[in-house]
Design goal:
Elements: H1 2-7, E1 17-24, E2 27-34, H2 41-59, H3 67-73, E3 80-81, H4 84-99, H5 126-132, E4 141-144, E5 149-152, H6 165-174
């Protein structure tokens, strides 16, 4: 076994392997791509990161002008039209909220005072949590598949799709 290991080249020393990292959806995405000779791994990585950036732009609650932003602005007022892709993502996240009994709650975006960064680690005061808690309830997100609309029933509700990057990033990009 030791003799065999001496003849194996480490994967990262192989010119067909590339690594890169980028921040997306509030997390660091590390990518390692290995391909057969003749296939440009840089092209594959660029395509994958481009798709992840597109999803980030579509799903981020911090992007003005996307469907998430429109949903927040219309919360408690009216349903907003969403693309079939966005409807699918919302259905997937809502299903996970239902399966977990709210442990994973797509409407957790209403908690505006939280800062989970290592440098800050801020937990808002109890009165602020109590004020925002009624706005966290996945059962108040209404999806209409026939009309392709989404509606948050209470003014001030917000969704946060970054709480499950595995569910939302990996499925469209990786196919699982």
């Amino acid at each position: 076994m030791v003799a065999t290991a001496l003849y194996l080249r480490p994967a990262l020393a192989d010119p067909t392997v590339r690594q890169a990292a980028r921040p997306l959806m509030g997390t660091r995405v590390d990518m390692t791509v290995q391909a057969d000779r003749g296939i440009d791994t840089q092209v594959a990585m660029t395509a994958a990161f481009s798709e992840m950036q597109r999803l980030h732009d579509m799903l981020s609650r911090y992007r003005i002008g996307n469907s998430v932003h429109a949903l927040h602005l219309a919360a408690g007022v009216q349903a907003v039209p969403v693309t079939p892709e966005m409807l699918s993502v919302l259905q997937m996240a809502l299903h996970r909220s239902q399966q977990s009994g709210g442990a994973f709650d797509i409407t957790v975006g209403a908690f505006t005072g939280w800062d989970f960064s290592q440098s800050a680690g801020v937990v808002p005061p109890a009165d602020e949590i109590a004020r925002e808690l009624p706005l966290v309830d996945y059962r108040q997100l209404v999806l209409d598949e026939k009309k392709s609309t989404a509606y948050l029933r209470l003014r001030g509700m917000r969704i946060d799709l970054a709480v499950s990057p595995n569910c939302l990033f990996c499925r469209p990009v990786c196919g699982y």
